[in-house]
Structures are given as C-alpha cells and as structure tokens.
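queue> pop job 88
queue> type: inverse folding (structure -> sequence)
queue> payload:
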C-alpha cells in the first residue's frame, strides 16, 4: 500500500481523485480504526482553505472575523458529521471499489466487538 505525499493528500482532501496506485490506501483511509478522525482532518483542511483568506482579507474587527470563522466551522463540522458515511463511501467508489465496500469492510472488522456488546446487553437486560 502506497501512501500519497502531502500535495496529493491535500488534493484528495479537497475532493480530487488519486491515481490507481493509491487505491488500497483510499480503502484503508476509509476503513481503519481512525477513519472518523481522518474524515474530520480532511474537512478541517477544506475549511482552512476558506477560513485563512476570510480572516486575512475581510475587513472589520478581528473579533468579528474570528467569531464568524468559529461559527462557520461549527456549522460545517456538524454538516460534515451528518454526511460522514456517504462522503467516505463516495471516496471509496471514486477509487474504483463497489458502493458499500467501506461499510462492509468496517462491519467485518467490528463484528466480534458488536457480538460481544450484544451478548453483554442481552445478559443484562434480556435475562
């Protein structure tokens, strides 16, 4: 599995596609244990591209610009959280995998933990 360099990762984070040699890395990025944090890192890089020029170029008091940027980040991160699964699936599909691949890989990886949690729940509340 080959990992993209910083510029390719930034392109990927901004929504661009990666060449086929990074295909396995895209699936790893969408299915590893930290996939949610990685999703928010990509969202943060997208927001930084917008926020930095706004803070530097928009006239007005600094506190107003910072407050506007903070509120914009909060709304954007809430939206990002609400479309996380679909966004990650779209990235995996763009890399050439079938739709639903990322979710099924994550489900397989967590099947044992879910079974244990279900057994604990049943033992506690269904007995």
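queue> result:
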């Amino acid at each position: 599995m080959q990992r993209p360099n910083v510029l390719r990762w930034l392109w990927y984070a901004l929504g661009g596609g990666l060449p086929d040699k990074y295909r396995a890395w895209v699936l790893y990025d969408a299915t590893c244990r930290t996939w949610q944090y990685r999703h928010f890192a990509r969202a943060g890089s997208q927001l930084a591209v917008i926020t930095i020029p706004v803070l530097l170029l928009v006239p007005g008091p600094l506190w107003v610009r910072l407050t506007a940027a903070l509120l914009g980040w909060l709304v954007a991160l809430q939206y990002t959280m609400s479309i996380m699964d679909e966004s990650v699936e779209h990235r995996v599909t763009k890399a050439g995998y079938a739709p639903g691949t990322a979710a099924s890989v994550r489900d397989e990886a967590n099947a044992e933990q879910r079974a244990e949690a279900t057994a604990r729940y049943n033992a506690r509340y269904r007995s």
